[in-house]
Structures are given as C-alpha cells and as structure tokens.
Amino acid sequence: DLLCLFDSYLKNCDLKDVTRIKYLFTACWFFDFLDAEGKVLSQCDIHLCIKFCVLIDNMKSWSAFYKARSKQQFKRLLKWLHDNEMIPFSENTVLPKIIWHREESLPSFYTAQEVSAMLDAVDISTAKGKEHYLILTLIVYYSLRISDVVYLKLSSIHWKDNEIRLTAFKNGANITLPLIEPVKLSLLDYLMNVRPSDCTLDYVFVTSDPPYRVKEELRTHSYIIKGYLEQAGVDCSNRHHGFHALRHSGATRLLECNTDVETITAILGHSS
C-alpha cells in the first residue's frame, strides 16, 4: 500500500516511467531492508537510514554515479515520508548533500579498428546475424541508445529524403540522421529477408512469429557485443562491453575528428 501511494506521488512529478520505476526499486529495497532489520516504518530512525546508505556504498560492482543516484532516490523517498508525517526527521538530516566524482567512472570505448573488426565478425548469412548486424550498425554509425534502436519505427525511415527522423525514447529529443549506405544496406537486408512480411506493426524489430509485437527483449542483449569482440580478437577484459560502450565509442571518434560539442550533442540526442 505504501509503495502504491509513493508511486501515485511519483506519477504527479512528471517523471518518465523508466525513472519512476528506479525510484520504486530503491523504495522497495529500503522497505525490505527495514524488514530484514526487524523494524517497521514507525520504528525507522536516522541511524537505520544511515546504515542503508552504507549498504548502498558497499555495493562493489556499482559505479560512484550509480551509488549517488540510488542515494538521491532514497533521499526523495525520505522527503515524501517526512512530508506525509510518516517519519519525524527530514531527508537533509540523513543526506545533507550528495557528492560523486565523474572521473571515477570514465566511459569505456573502442577504436575504429576494433569496432570494424567486431562488425566483420558477425555472420550475416543467418537471420540472427542480420538482426544483430543491423542493431550494431545503428549504434556504431549513429551512436543511438539501444532503446531508440529497439523502438525504431518504419515511419521514421524516410527513404526518398535519405533520412532517419526519430524522437529519443529517453528525453524526447528530436533527432535527424542521414541514411548512410552501410546502414541502408543492413536495414534493407533485414527488412527483406528477416522481418515477417505480413506484420503490420510500425516497428522495425518485431518478433518472428504471430501475434507480432515489438521485440523489447533486444534491449537486454548487450552480451552479443562481447561475443563478437572476442571472435574478432579484441581484448575487452578491462572495459565495459555493452551497447553504451559502442555509443561512447562513436562520441569519442567524433571528438577525435574535432567535431564541435553542439553537433555531438545533437547526434547523441542529449538535452544538455
């Protein structure tokens, strides 16, 4: 019941669903923590909240940014609880100021040669290979987020104008990109040879069997990148090897070509 009330509050804060779910996850984690401590919310005190923050800090696999974001989400939960008179202390008593250092979690990236070798490792003679190759080329050449790739619509592809026009899934930014030859060829190959011809959905990536739906599970398939990098003989042991690493790689190559920041911002679809 408490989570439902908190969820109603978050919905009124004009948050995107993906952000709202992250807040709910942290809230659920905190309530589970209280339960593990043998406490109910009315018994919650500052020391318990600090103990929960220490728990966040001790998550070894988390970056400094992820820890700071989790504490920021926890702080908002405490504010809501205090504003609704469920706890006697304010959020600032527990977390006066949250500080994190971006340099602790510099993004991983791959060189143009490594990315090219990765693409060459994809077997495009198979349906799965054609699908993977299209996903990778969209990220490699356009530095798109995986969410924008997975939810790419057929109506966003303007063949006559040689453009792709889409709205970023994360922040609603409008992005216009040239439909360059490598992407056009992999796109045509996928649409003609893999995507079901009788599917009427407006999405590029759909399931292979009816009832058709957008293939959302592709968002979690970042493991394919590591497989292709290893096949290409690229050492990724000390680097991240997910979709975002390819996005960072594209931004890095733009910087190396002395592209101005405003252009990179527009290509990446950043609001800031």
The percent of residues in helical segments reads 40-55%
Q: SS-based structural class? A: mainly alpha
- Please give the count of helices: 12
Strand order of the largest sheet: 1-2-3
**Based on DSSP secondary structure assignment, what is the total number of beta strands?**
3
CA-based shape: elongated
Instruction: State Rg.
Output: 22 Å
Low-confidence stretches: none
> How far is the first residue's CA from the last residue's CA?
37 Å
| Overall pLDDT metric | 90
Largest sheet: 3 strands, antiparallel
Write the element-wise H/E pattern from the N-terminal end onward.
HHHHHHHHEEEHHHH
- Name the beta content range: under 5%
Structure commentary:
The chain has 272 residues and is mainly α. 51% of the residues lie in helices and 4% in strands. A three-stranded antiparallel beta sheet has the order 1-2-3. The longest helix is centred in the first third of the chain and has 20 residues, at 17-36. It is elongated, with a radius of gyration of 22 Å. The model has no long low-confidence stretch (mean pLDDT 90).
Task: Name the features.
3 strands, elongated, 3-stranded antiparallel sheet
Quick overview:
This protein is mainly alpha-helical and 272 residues long. It has helices spanning 2-11, 17-36, 46-57, 64-83, 91-94, 112-120, 127-142, 146-150, 181-193, 223-231, 243-256, 261-268, and strands at residues 157-158, 163-167, 174-178. Helix 2 (17-36) packs across helix 4 (64-83).
Topology summary:
Layout: H1 2-11, H2 17-36, H3 46-57, H4 64-83, H5 91-94, H6 112-120, H7 127-142, H8 146-150, E1 157-158, E2 163-167, E3 174-178, H9 181-193, H10 223-231, H11 243-256, H12 261-268
Antiparallel strand pairs: 1-2, 2-3
Helix pairs in contact: 1-2, 2-4, 6-10, 7-9, 7-11
